Amino acid sequence: MKRVYGIESMPRFETLAKLARTDVLTKAYNRMAFDDFMVKEVAAARRYKAPLGLIALNIDDFRTIARQHSYLICDEVIVEVANILRHRMRTSDLLFRWVGHMFVMLLPHTNMDGTKIAADKYRQDVSEHNFPEIGRITCSFGVIEFEEGDTEDLIIKRAEAALAEAKKEGGNHVVTLHKAAHDTPQPV
To answer: Which of 175, 154, 43 is nearest to 108 (CA)?
Structure first.
């Protein structure tokens, strides 16, 4: 017997589809959603010659926080960082929980300068926030802009390289990285 699903089953399907693309803890998009959005945003940037910024960030000294506090406190920190980022985001920006205490943000129609400015505001918002039970924390930010010839993999590699350089600078930094200068990140 063939079963036909009507309009009444759509809300349930939409709910399941949203859950499959959302990080349970932070309610940010997950990596699976990132892959889909990244393909679409890169295609749009290529087609319309529009800028596309990407920010990779993670919480500085998270291992120390994890050693000193419970996993529940660590989860609360991750959730609060996501909320701080979400509070300042434009409606067109996209937030993803990449892995653990690392996030990625896509900023459509935003060039390198605009992405760097946004990242520095996020950095300041996090560093000025008082987290219950642990006080203040910081995050490091790697900033890149989609450049002609980039693949999705190259974009992520460059963003992670910029983030690694920000961590090397001691954390609480924003580092930009152009494709041509992949070997020489530029601290802000």
So the answer is: 43
Q: Is the separation of the CB atoms in 160 and 98 below 8 Å?
A: no
Q: How far apart are CA 152 and CA 143, in angstroms?
A: 15
Q: Which tokens hold the place of 112?
A: 């390198």
Q: What is the mean pLDDT of residues 65-70?
A: 95
User: Is the separation of the CB atoms in 175 and 158 below 8 Å?
Assistant: no
Asked if the model's pLDDT at residue 19 lies above 90, the reply is no
pLDDT in tens, 149-185: 999 999 999 999 999 999 999 999 999 999 866 545 5
Cα 97 from Cα 93, distance rounded (Å)? 14
> CA-CA distances (angstroms) from residue 163 to 81, 104, 138, 172?
17, 11, 13, 11
**Rounded CA separation 86/131 (Å):** 16
- Can you tell me the distance from the alpha carbon of 162 to that of 169, in angstroms, rounded to the nearest whole number? 11
Domain boundaries, the chain: 7-187
Among the listed residues 118, 170, 169, 138, the one whose alpha carbon sits nearest the alpha carbon of residue 186: 169
Nearest to 119 by CA among 51, 83, 172, 168: 172
Q: Report the topology of domain 7-187.
A: Alpha-Beta Plaits (3.30.70)
| Number of residues that this document lists for the chain | 188
